[in-house]
Amino acid sequence: IPNFNAPHVGPVAVGAAAVTLLSLVTLHADTKVVLIAVETAALRYTVNGTAPTATLGFNALAGAYVRLTREEADACKLIRATGADSALQIAQYKD
User: Are strands 19-20 and 77-80 parallel, antiparallel or unpaired?
Assistant: First the structure.
């Protein structure tokens, strides 16, 4: 169920420095799931609070969708995986 209290965010850029997902979007209190659409370049992400690198973390290619629970989203950190910044679209859901 889309969280209509939380607006869609994007595109947002992820560059060479690791960032938290929470620095890109404010999660609404009712949000249970976050869906990230990777529009352009690949990125790396972690869901345990550790910093990803160009070779460490889960890989998400351009065109991929990443589904995170609220707990994973709260701890998520992202970094671009290639030389180009990654553009993301972020949506929040209640279920």
Answer: antiparallel
C-alpha 17/C-alpha 2 separation (Å) is 30
Q: Which two tokens stand for residue 73?
A: 């989203």
Task: Say what the pTM is.
Answer: 0.94
Q: What is the pLDDT of residues 50-92, one digit of tens each?
A: 999 988 999 999 999 999 999 999 999 999 999 999 999 999 9
User: What backbone torsions phi and psi does residue 93 show, to the nearest 5 degrees?
Assistant: -130, 150
Q: Is the dihedral of CA 36, 16, 46, 75 positive or negative?
A: negative
Write the CB contacts of 6 (distance below 8 Å, at least 6 apart in sequence).
26, 27, 28, 30, 31, 92
